[in-house]
Write a structure and sequence with these properties.
This protein is mostly helical. The protein contains ten helices and no strands. It is globular, with a radius of gyration of 17 Å. About 5% of the residues have low confidence.
Length: 246
Amino acid sequence: MHPLLAEFLGTMLLILLGNGVVANVILNKTKGNGGGWIVITTGWALAVFVGVVVAGPYSGAHLNPAVTLALAIAGKFAWSSVPLFILAQLLGAMAGAFLVWVYYKDHLDATADPGLIQACYCTAPAIRNNGRNFVSEVIGTFVLLFTIFYFTGAELGAEKTPVGMGSLGALPVALLVLAIGLSLGGTTGYAINPARDFGPRLMHAILPVKGKAGSGWDYAWIPVAGPFIGAAIAAVLYLCLQPAIK
């Protein structure tokens, strides 16, 4: 499989299952309605597992522009491939959001609250405070990337899975995302991935979703800029610590 196709498909599956669990829990008349935060965070962690298993052997399973940026800064990924990887991730996220719309169309139509409808696509803060919301995304993404750099036996190249244990190599990444969601996700919904938020937000604006309101574009910069900054900080700190470790 071509690495760009792997990134597209892996990100598509990530969003289909990740936003899918959100839709299952919060939309009216679903079997999973009212499942709660534990179900959502677990579903997102397993969505990461699936995406990494599919894409890992072919692209390294970045599935996240912040991951791609951090690996490039750390010298583990070619800068020339960064734009195409990010484009593939963005298109994959849009495709995944489209599939969620197809799958849950009846339940989206049965839900009157525009905030719940939007939550099936993109993130929004529990308490709107741009400064703290931004810091939340920076810290969450920093934890994600800094920890990934220290996975034992990590192989982060374009042709390797993130941890080097075959399909089980996706498990530590999934557990990491679960930990971030449980501990740090309550403020902003832990986008920690610019494509995860921007692609579905764009689809929310485009798709004919009954009862939707605005797509929250005044907030949209936070789950894009925050993860990029957090990823860059993680990569720079990792590089600074390498001489001490060696």
